[in-house]
Amino acid sequence: MMPAQFQIDIFDEIRVLIGGFEPVVLSSVMDELEGLCRTKGRDGAAARCGLALGKECTIADSSELESRSVDAQITEYATRTDCMVVTNDRGLRDVLFTRGIGVISLRKQKKLELFRR
């Protein structure tokens, strides 16, 4: 949802930050975005943008993950696959940091930055 909310090209920004990458999104994240698409206003528009961008990514089946919440699934998947996570969610970012997972997040609402602990 970041690109719609802050007018950034997320894929180009990530390429500048880390070089080549394979974008992956969990199926549960896509499901969550589909639900948010039904809302009106900025959040609904941002979710529709996020869903469109998600369709450009490899969609990983999250039904095999043991965790129930989407954030916990993201954490579990990132731990299993040793990948970085793009998120602006502070709570999720803190959990990922404690697990030693790299996080790409928006800084000052205009530029992506890689955070590691």
What descriptors fit this protein?
two-stranded parallel sheet; Rossmann fold; 117 residues; alpha/beta
Strand arrangement, major sheet? 3-4-5
How many E-type strands?
5
Number of helices: 6
Structural class: alpha/beta
Q: What name goes with the CATH superfamily?
A: 5'-nuclease
Radius of gyration, CA atoms, in whole angstroms? 14 Å
Cα shape: globular
User: Which CATH architecture?
Assistant: 3-Layer(aba) Sandwich
Number of domains: 1
In percent, how much strand structure appears in the residues?
Answer: 15-25%
Biggest sheet overview: 3 strands, mixed
Stated plainly, the CATH topology is called: Rossmann fold
In round numbers, the mean pLDDT is: 90
Helix share bin: 40-55%
**Assigned CATH class:** Alpha Beta
How far apart the termini lie comes to 25 Å
In short:
This protein has helices at residues 2-6, 10-18, 27-37, 41-54, 70-81, 90-98, and strands at residues 24-26, 58-60, 85-86, 103-107, 111-115.
Topology:
Elements (H helix, E strand, L loop, with lengths): L1 H5 L3 H9 L5 E3 H11 L3 H14 L3 E3 L9 H12 L3 E2 L3 H9 L4 E5 L3 E5 L2
Parallel strand pairs: 1-2, 3-4
Antiparallel strand pairs: 4-5
What does this structure look like?
Helix content is 51%, strand content 15%. It is α/β, with parallel strands linked by helices and 117 residues long. It has a single domain (2-115), classed as 3-Layer(aba) Sandwich (Rossmann fold), CATH 3.40.50.1010. The strands form 2 sheets. Strands 3-4-5 form a 3-stranded mixed β-sheet, with helices on both faces. A two-stranded parallel sheet has the order 1-2. It is globular. The model has no long low-confidence stretch (mean pLDDT 90).
